[in-house]
């Protein structure tokens, strides 16, 4: 196939481009390339989509068997759909389960209510992520219709993850026994991560088959306690774990989920279903997941290469963790 990836230099889009080339497809990536290079073997069109429709002048009118869109910006997404949609054989939009209006119900499927879409003339922001993705879903259905495969991804993990969420815990546990590891008291809570390699493979395979519709592209549910124990077992020098009550952590100003001085994979009340949605429909359509412990093992190997003690976008800083452990009630 002739595949155009709108992106192709960062994490998922780069993995899609990489696997597509390895499978023998002809791949073009359109990306700025400000933070990374496009994979070997692709044709790279350097362009900044913030400049509008002019960036597609050299691509419009060409026949693409597959276009992969990962944008969170409705304005940029609409420009791409208008420029390329008519000549695309199939269109994949990587959306997010953040489009759902309710995250409280475990096992919820694709028929759950969505957030009100952001107005299509407004650029997306981190604060309107779910509304932005909802808007792009709607315009994708409107403009390419039955050619659209909408992939509602959950948390993506595996080698190369720059968000630092899934990799925080194996990296933290592997830093030795000198410092206790502070964890939230959520052993029975669900985690749900999909390996970037499995997601990329399914996106390409679904494009080859012309799959259309909206699907939750998620990993299987793993209790946080099982995930943490697996992290500890991978550590060469198992650290001591200090378990903290959720309410106490919140009172101390520890953040949920991501960001500076947060505890990744820990969610606020009302999010009991956020990492426990149904992935049955995608599995029925050929999505194959590797064992989650393999993803964890490979994530730790990647974390070691990148530096276990590096500054991170998510997780507790060493100083904050030490302070909180000292404050823990007896």
Helix/strand layout:
Layout: E1 2-6, H1 11-22, E2 26-31, E3 43-46, E4 66-69, H2 74-84, E5 91-96, H3 129-144, E6 148-153, E7 155-157, H4 168-173, E8 181-184, E9 190-195, H5 196-209, E10 213-217, E11 221-223, H6 224-234, E12 241-244, H7 246-251, E13 255-257, E14 262-264, H8 280-284, H9 292-306, H10 318-327
Parallel strand pairs: 1-2, 1-4, 2-3, 4-5, 5-6, 6-10, 7-9, 8-12, 13-14
Antiparallel strand pairs: 9-11
Helix pairs in contact: 1-5, 2-3, 6-9
Outline the structure in words.
This protein has helices at 11-22, 74-84, 129-144, 168-173, 196-209, 224-234, 246-251, 280-284, 292-306, 318-327, and strands at 2-6, 26-31, 43-46, 66-69, 91-96, 148-153, 155-157, 181-184, 190-195, 213-217, 221-223, 241-244, 255-257, 262-264. With 330 residues, the chain is an alpha/beta fold. The strands form four sheets. The chain has a seven-stranded parallel sheet, with helices on both faces. The protein has a three-stranded mixed sheet with strand order 7-9-11. The longest helix has 16 residues, at 129-144. The chain is globular.
